[in-house]
Design brief:
Chain lengths: ~300, ~300
């Protein structure tokens, strides 16, 4: 293959594509974390486990119940969201008035239990999930071949991220949400059912993780620890971007995916750690994070 | 209450610690002491300054790897090996601390978790850690070049001495003027700042001290088991030390030791045999129950009980 200035364009674009896909998952997960953080002031440690459950539900649907990919895409995120609603209502709410560190520890415990249950039932080896027929094949973009399913992930993630951003920034419901982020008690005084809003927000944030799980099932192998590994990276991304803005969470997520992809091409040894190193640099230069408002 | 505050309790406990290896398997006891010291070091930050670190595995593993490597390859005596491991963890604590004390609360937890994951990948790829196999067959050696530590009973008394030293240091710190400032930061940080304390500096000092003592625990543990592996650097380990502290009682002196005994005991009970896969579920459930209904932990509840009834 031809190289330009010592760079192999096919390999480079290939890694960029992988980076964009990882970035899409980072964006979906950090968006969910940011939405939950806005209202509840906690970081949901179970976000990774719920992403894993999203992938497993899609796999169970296909292997055990014959439910195809498209139905999974529709059904699984609400199911995961419902699980989130139950977690919020029965576990997090009773201790919401305590120090937020307790809620954080609680979600960590929930993550351990969920991950433990799935590895007990399914073992720790990865499960394959085939790409739906309608999304198989590749598209010739002229400079590279794009597997259609990978393009689909990027498109759907961007649509969902943008739709969520629009709903929060531009609609009446989003205005309530933003008001609740600023001052929940005052909003309640205006007659809004804030506890219900908190529960539904948690459910929605978690459903985004479920959606990411279904999208991930065909390209990553479905395994119980898939969530924990990605979640720590997402935490670093949240620190880099800061949780002040919804748009910031999305942009940082995608940008970090791309940076990771580029690192895989230029210096593969550092591809596992590059995002953590970026976090260190950001902490040195702008401790509040790129889009952060505090301090 | 008088009894608990007096020295009699401490003397009784030390006497118990001296005879207990004749009743209970010393290796188990050494494991409890190492993790007890680790949890007590962690508690110095969580319980007394209110900083939740989710990356303390980094310091345990650094102490273990540095000690293990130097004792195996440079022929250091155990006490020098442990000293080097502890110093390495202190230096790492200074680096991590300088970065992470810039952020608070939840961000602090995420920064420490991410930094320790960075270190995990470093240990995974660095040649001197032997990757997935870990350092095996680390010699226990001769203490000060004289006392042979290969017998478990001798090793136990050495570990007990290390533990008591670390524990004493933590106790002294908590009850010193420095410790009082730390508690002030925990209770009301803006007020501590307005009183003129450089809060970040105090937090950093607590961080370094906690990291060094965690390193001490890790170094000692590496010699006890003659093994240092990636398990110690994994985020599970960071979660486990949080659990030990929570179960035993945050912000209490003896809580972390009691918590370590409970958690290590449960792990020993479940490890091996077909119950092994339940271990994470059990740990998670204990986490949930503790947070929902049992936030003071065993020692915290006990103190409350004593206070109300005597």
């Amino acid at each position: 293959m031809d190289t330009v200035l010592g760079i192999n364009p096919v390999a480079l674009f290939g890694q960029l594509l992988v980076g964009l896909i990882n970035g899409s998952f980072y964006a979906l997960l950090s968006l969910g974390l940011a939405i939950i953080f806005g209202l509840l002031r906690i970081i949901n440690f179970a976000q990774g486990a719920l992403y894993m459950i999203g992938a497993f539900l899609a796999w169970i649907g296909l292997e055990w119940l014959g439910v195809g990919y498209w139905w999974s895409l529709l059904i699984v995120p609400p199911l995961v969201g419902l699980l989130g609603v139950l977690i919020e209502r029965f576990l997090i709410r009773p201790i919401a008035h305590e120090d937020h560190l307790y809620s954080l520890l609680l979600t960590f415990g929930v993550a351990l239990v969920l991950q433990g249950v799935f590895s007990h039932i399914f073992g720790s080896s990865g499960k394959p999930y085939s790409i739906p027929e309608s999304l198989q094949g590749v598209m010739n973009l002229g400079f590279m071949y794009l597997p259609i399913y990978r393009g689909w992930i990027i498109v759907i993630s961007l649509l969902v991220c943008f739709g969520t951003w629009w709903a929060i920034e531009k609609t009446k419901l989003g205005a309530y949400l933003r008001a609740g982020t600023e001052n929940a008690r005052l909003l309640q005084a205006f007659g809004i059912n804030v506890p219900l809003m908190v529960t539904l927000t948690f459910g929605f944030g978690v459903a985004l993780a479920g959606l990411a799980g279904v999208l991930a099932a065909p390209i990553y192998s479905v395994s119980p620890d898939m969530g924990a590994n990605i979640l720590i990276v997402v935490f670093a991304i949240v620190v880099i971007g800061g949780m002040g803005s919804i748009g910031g969470a999305i942009i940082t997520g995608i940008a970090m995916g791309v940076i990771e992809g580029l690192t895989k091409y230029f210096y593969p040894e550092a591809s596992n750690t590059i995002i953590f190193m970026v976090m260190v640099i950001v902490l040195l230069i702008k401790p509040a994070g790129l889009f952060g408002k505090e301090i | 209450m008088e009894f608990i505050k007096s020295n009699k309790l401490n003397i009784a406990l030390i006497a118990l610690a001296l005879v207990i290896p004749f009743a209970i398997y010393p290796v188990f006891l050494m494991k409890v002491l190492c993790f007890g010291l680790f949890a007590a070091a962690f508690n110095l930050m969580l319980g007394f300054v209110g900083m939740l670190s989710f990356g303390h595995a980094a310091f345990l593993a650094t102490g273990g790897y540095v000690t293990g490597y130097l004792v195996s390859n440079a022929g250091l005596t155990p006490e020098l090996g442990i000293l080097c491991g502890t110093l390495a963890s202190a230096v790492l604590g200074y680096l991590f601390g300088s970065l992470s004390v810039k952020r608070e609360g939840i961000y602090f937890a995420m920064v420490t978790l991410a930094l320790s994951q960075l270190l995990f990948f470093f240990f995974l790829q660095a040649p001197f850690t032997e990757g997935e196999n870990g350092l095996q067959g680390i010699p226990r050696g001769h203490l000060f070049g004289m006392i042979d530590l290969s017998s478990n009973l001798t090793m136990y008394y050495f570990v007990l001495a290390v533990f008591l030293l670390g524990f004493w240091l933590i106790n002294r710190t908590v009850h010193s003027p420095f410790g009082q400032v730390l508690k002030a930061v925990r209770e009301n940080e803006p007020r501590a700042i307005s009183l003129g304390y450089n809060v970040r500096k105090y937090k950093l000092m607590a961080f370094v001290l906690s990291a060094a003592l965690s390193g001490l625990a890790g170094s000692t543990k590496a010699l006890v088991f003659q093994l240092e592996s990636l398990t110690d650097a994994h985020w599970h380990m960071s979660g486990e030390v949080v659990l030990m502290t929570l179960v035993g009682g945050m912000g209490t002196i003896f809580g972390p030791l009691v918590g370590a005994a409970v958690v290590v005991g449960i792990e020993n009970f479940f490890s091996g045999g077909e119950l092994g896969t339940y271990i994470h579920i059990i740990m998670g459930l204990i986490f949930i129950v503790c947070v929902l209904a049992f936030r003071s932990g065993i020692v915290g509840e006990f103190n409350k009980f004593v206070k109300n009834n005597f």
